[in-house]
Amino acid sequence: MADDPKDNDQQGEPEGRADIPRDPSGDPGFVSMEGPDVETPTGGAEDGFSPEDLSFLDDVSSGAATAETAPTEQVDEHLADLKRVTAEYANYRRRTEANRQVERDRAVGDVVKQLLPVLDDLDRAEKHGDLAEGGPLTTIASKLRTSVEKIGLVGFGVTGESFDPSQHEAIFQKANPAVSAPTVSDVVERGYRIGDVTLRVAKVVVDTPGD
Fold first, then answer.
1. What is the DSSP string of 147-164?
2. Among residues 190, 191, 182, 184, which one has the least CA distance to residue 209?
3. Is 4 within the bounds of a domain?
4. How many domains does the chain have?
5. Could you give the CA distance from residue 94 to residue 22 in angstroms, rounded to a whole number?
């Protein structure tokens, strides 16, 4: 009676390994094992993890890593960054507000400049006594000056004050032994400003020290 091929296969199969997958190529020394598809980094330098990183990961996995256990240096660094960003934002807001105010003053000043010749005429009329109390122009002059003051217009240039090239334009100079420094002796036209914006410097006569 011929041997059954199945019996031969079973006789050649090592005990306990009947269900182990074989290499499709037929290599009897190949054994397939199940395992993870991706290897987990072991913490070596080639994996990019330092011992501190591994320690932190261990703390996270165990639930021991909390904000209270964070390194003091790291907390201080974050606080310093927060303070720096807050200060930069505050400075940015101040600069923005200051620039906005300057632009507003310039815009208002461009309009008010049209009224400066009228204010000059009122000053000349006052010097000549035409704005005496009860005069016909007194009320008009008072209302106009009050209105421009309300929008921020400020006049400057007074007889007797020290000469300041940034605020005064000297249209005439004369020696005066009574003064020890350049001094405004007469104001031809007052200067005006709105906020930090100078609309016009004052035109003045200057006394200079001399014999």
1. HHHHTTEEEE--TTSBP-
2. 182
3. no
4. 1
5. 77
Asked whether residue 133 is assigned to any structural domain, the reply reads no
CB 193 within 8 A of CB 199: yes
Residue 65 domain flag: no
Residue 187's H or E segment, with its range, is strand 183-189
Residue 78 has phi, psi (to 5 degrees) of -65, -40
Q: Domain range holding 99? A: 72-111
Quick: pLDDT tens for 133-188: 766 778 888 889 999 999 899 999 999 999 999 999 999 999 998 999 999 999 99
* Among the listed residues 192, 114, 117, the one whose alpha carbon sits nearest the alpha carbon of residue 152: 192
- Phi, then psi, of 19 in degrees rounded to 5: -100, 5
Structure tokens belonging to residue 177? 């032994």
Residue 116 in domain: no
CA distance 112 to 116: 7
| Of the candidates 14, 52, 50, the residue with the CA atom closest to the CA atom of residue 31 | 14
- Report the alpha-carbon distance of residue 106 to residue 194 in Å, rounded: 8
Place of tokens 């009122």: 122
